[in-house]
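Predict the 3D structure for this chain.
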Amino acid sequence: MTTGGTGLGPRDVTPQATRPLLDYEVPGLGELMRSVGLRTTPMSVLSRSLAGVRGRTLILTCPAASGATESLEAVASVLGHAVRLLAGETGHGAPPA
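Done. Predicted structure below.
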């Protein structure tokens, strides 16, 4: 998990730096983080938070300060399931080798 650098300022480069490292994105997590932020501030729509996977690791880029806490709380209920899926526990047979 990273915090900060997801806005529109010239130094906000976290998404650009992270995206090339990902094998694939998980857009629903970024969407959820932004939607929860809307409860606090309309400025959350400017966040470029994203989530993705590299290997079997889930990576979240969150806004700074209280936005990071809100973002993590927003996705907390699905993180355990996501980690189990990434470990190969799909309920569809044996885990991958």
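The mean pLDDT is 93.
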